[in-house]
Amino acid sequence: MxxxxxxxxxxxxxxxxxxxxxxxxxxxxxxxxxxxxxTRIVIVLSFVRTGLATQQMPPNQVLIALALFxxxxxxxxxxxxxxxxxxxxxxxGEIDQEEAFDRAVVPMxxxxxxxxxxxxxxxxxxxxxxxxxxxxxxxxxxxxxPAFAISEIKTxxxxxxxxxxxxxxxxxxxxxxxxxMGMMMLPPVMIALPFKILLFVMVDGWHLVVQSLLLSxx
Length: 218
Known about the structure:
By secondary structure, the protein is mainly alpha-helical. It is 79% helix and 0% strand. It is built from eight helices and no strands.
């Protein structure tokens, strides 16, 4: 009877490892999104579409794909460092998984800490009763990731505000003109839409928006 126990325990251990691996893989996209610049980029691009009032143009798939590729472009140096310091040595068998994780976290933490507001980080560190960090190693991921996420959301909304201002001015001008002409039953949004698209195209809006996003991470 006991001779079957090792085999049973090995099978159980393998099953648990596979279950844990599947759980990590299912959460990995969400984790990577919150630890990269994807959040800021996709929110800003959504603000542009909302400001133009073009409904679903560009479609969600286009905005998300564009945000992903811009994210890969911005994060390329960080990913290259992770690959050089952690992934390649792990695949070569030079280090174990735990050490690979510790090495991979360092470039990601440096990137997130650079773009995280001190106030947001202090919020989570203070709630957890942690002391003021002296070095980057003293900041746990459990506090840094949500602090980085809300910092990115705030920055994205600040950029979105400046994007909305010129579109709002056009809406106000069109609404005032229509009211002065006595055409109050005509929706101002319908008349303002081609003017907003024309203005956005004339100033090469997509180029300016993407350029601003790239410069915000320089």
